[in-house]
Protein 1
Amino acid sequence: MANEMPLWEVFIRPRNGLSHKHCGSIHAADEVMALQAARDVYTRRGEGNSIWVVLSSAITASDPDQAGENFEPGEKIYRHPTFYEIPEEVGNM
Amino acid sequence: MPLFEALLELADDHVVLGHRVSEWCGHAPMLEEDLAMPNMALDLIGTARTLYEYAGKVEGQGRGEDDLAYLRGEREYRNCLLVERRNGDFAQTMLRQLYFAAFMEPYWTAAADSADETIRGVAGKAVKEMAYHIRHAGEWVIRLGDGTGESARRMAEAVENLHLYTDELFEAGSAADVDVLPDRAALRPAWEATIDHIFGEAGLSRPVIPHPQTGGRNGVHGEDLGHMLAVMQSTHRAHPGATW
């Protein structure tokens, strides 16, 4: 049965003011059933107050073979904002 | 003691349906439903516990929830016949859930104004649960009724098998003289509206039943209830007072 049903990715927002966070996936026939399945599987213990579901097939993912060129910037330390002094009066930023 | 009897009817409905739904645990067609059904079963059993506890207090004989749930025989059970029907296939289980929840949701909505504080407390929690059961079971009834040839046939069979037990939901039973509980007969229009709305989308029609089946409120049950209670009560009867 699960083979006939598409896979959906589930995102839960734990509290107002926070962003939705990916928490897993479920099988369901359509978006309405997907929301219900997500509610039953992932919010049984008060984990959130909002659910998003999106078809897994609608997600475009980066290619693991391109991890080098994508995610290893190397010695570009100038990309870190550590080259200026913050006056003490500013306090914590 | 009409309030005690009326609370028992209500609690028995919930524990019997809760046990029936729990029988799916580990057997559902997919993991998602395998979690959804125990969720629903536990909602019902949770409500039953509060109602039994309160019934025991009202009776004043020192009986608690376990005594009332586990040490009464089949003829002493006062649940309506609908909830004791066997699970059958998934279509039948979902339709039974819809029929019951579509009745209990307006019931608890009305009970939220009860003069009895415990009833109001149960109602506040249960009304949200029943709204969800209507949604969950209703969406399945729509999809099975409006689905493939086989699912539509099974859904239509479920209506044929179960509809004759729905009239009993509206019988006053022991609650006739209890003014802290809602008038069941008055809930029929709300129930019919919910069912008609869902049946409309599912391509099903609500049958007219010339001879409805009743008797549960008097302890006259189908043979399936005894088998179910034997399983449900076996641990407590073998190990009285066992806790975990």
Protein 2
Amino acid sequence: MKKILVIIPAYNEQDNILKTYKSIINYNKKNKTNYDVIVINDGSKDKTGKILNTNEIPHVNLIHNLGIGGAMQTGYKYALENDYDIAVQFDGDGQHNVNYIKDLVDVLDKDSDIVIGSRFIKDVGEFKSTAARRMGINIISFFIKLFTKKKIYDTTSGFRACNKKVIGKFAYSYPTEYPEPISNFELLKQGFKIKEVSVEMNKREGGISSISSWKNIYYMINVILSIIIISVRRYK
Amino acid sequence: MPIKLILEILLFCLLMFIIILIILKRGRISVKYSLVWFIPVIVILICALIPNFMMMLAKLLGFQTLSNMIFSILIAILIFICLSLTIIVSGQKEKIKLLIQEVSLLKEKVDDKNGSRK
């Protein structure tokens, strides 16, 4: 039986975190799975920390806010330390659906190092995000394809499952900002196998996305610049 | 160059020198990074002490006046200092991130062992 860890980074997620945790626990009971959960509390200023304590949710409290990349990497370090075979990135805001974790893990088992839960492969779910944002994601996809000849449809998706090899790599180095597209690109560059699985995502139930709309252009420029820089970097 | 100007420049350099030394003495700056700030002081000093040679050099390099050359050199040095500071800050940010992660993980482990989740 493979040890599976669900990593949930949480920054000011007091409205959603308990619901998200319970959905995974209930799923475990129903399907006789044993997904472990670790919540990385990224120095939340609201009641997130208190909720985690009173409900005895396994968590790591970061002593200072690190941002999404640093928090996520802490989860991967935890996974490495505790010898997990598979790590699943899962949002604390109710966007991701626990029922799809199995789909991701199944594909991962077959023949890939990391599996992305993608919104855009097939037409499922009502949430497709705004047209502007989709265009942004398409442009990033285009750049990734330009440099690696491989197509990733939903490169900004934060719903991903990866194997032990990738856990080790992420624990060692993980991008601080805009981690998903950049780390996907880095993995492709280093010859890891990426697959995408179609998933349905819910609309955000509360909290604020780490990418607010007016920052979209800045986000794009940053990601594309990072991709160009990484592509000229050499890996041993 | 008028003698007044040279005196002013010398006074300024002396002041800069003393300020840097005081900061150094108080341990607010490490010797390694203080050296960077002596460079512009020395450049200004040289320009003030051998103006004729510098004037010639300015003409040779195509500057219309000596002051233009001095400004350009100082701006270049300041840009370089800023860049090196950015490099230092980036490195420190990475180190602080690592520290926060490791301490937090360790804390979780210790709390877990003691059975008391604070």
